[in-house]
Structures are given as C-alpha cells and as structure tokens.
Amino acid sequence: MTRGKQKIDAQRRSAEKNQKAKGSQLEARAVGLKVICAICKVQLANEKQLIDHYGSKHPKEKPPSSSE
C-alpha cells in the first residue's frame, strides 16, 4: 500500500504548490505597461504597439514621435 500513501502525499504537495501561485497579477501588468495613448489613455507595452493602436483606433490622427 506504499503507492497509495505516495499518491496522497503528491496530491497534498501539488495542492499546496498551486495555492501559493494564486494571486493578482495587476501589479506585474502595471509594470509592463509603460506607454499611454494621449487620446484615449489606454496603456500599452511599447512604442510599436502605440503606433499599431493609432492605426486601428485613431486612423485620422498622426502617431506621436518616439521622443515623447
């Protein structure tokens, strides 16, 4: 019956590991989003995404230069 005890122990360890991993990732997400659209205030990760965003959401507007 050794295998039964090993299985129960493995399930318990797995459950403990999964509980520690849960939590909010909002702080990590906020750190990654560094560029903000001046028109609609959406947060984006980089300049390329901002240019793509302007092309799809604000086609009549000119994207800001990379120096801003």
Automatic annotation (TrEMBL):
Keyword Nucleus: yes
Residue segments, region Disordered: 1-25
Compositional bias ranges of the Basic and acidic residues kind: 1-19
Keyword Lipid biosynthesis annotated: no
C2H2-type domain residues: 37-58
InterPro entries: MBS1/2-like (IPR045230), Znf_C2H2_type (IPR013087)
Compartments in which it is found: Cytoplasm; Nucleus
GO cellular component terms, A-Z: cytoplasm; nucleus
Keywords on record: Cytoplasm, Nucleus
Protein name, as recorded: C2H2-type domain-containing protein
Organism, as annotated: Zizania palustris (Northern wild rice)
